[in-house]
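Researcher: Please translate sequence to structure tokens.
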Amino acid sequence: MPRIVALMLALCLLAGCAGQKSKGDLLEATLESYASTIRWGNFEDAAAFVDPETLKAHPLTTLDLERYRQLRISGYNAQPARSVGTNEVTVVAEVVLTNNNTQSVRSVLDRQRWRYDEKAKRWWLVTGLPDITQH
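Model: Translation complete:
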């Protein structure tokens, strides 16, 4: 009987630990989710990753969203995240864009800066969505 109690206690502790992700695990999950969202070309959903302060300073306009809708994402290749502080990382990603109207293909470099929010227990994209106006 004591073995069963010890086993149950160990399982409960493991379940509790599994429910709390580390900052690194959260970063990995966030970057994967963001990449998936961008690959599908869903920029409206991708805006949910952007730091609220960044969105307040640079809100997405209807024109911005229309520009994003004119494109199809043909590729998204991100380098591994690099730490630049306790709660900040940078990621450089190549975003390959295909214009829906002309079928021309080009790529832009998206230099991302991510910040960990201790209160919210999540990572925010500080630099905003990719700048598709680069040439």
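Researcher: Any highlights?
Model: Residues 1-18 have pLDDT under 50 and may be disordered.
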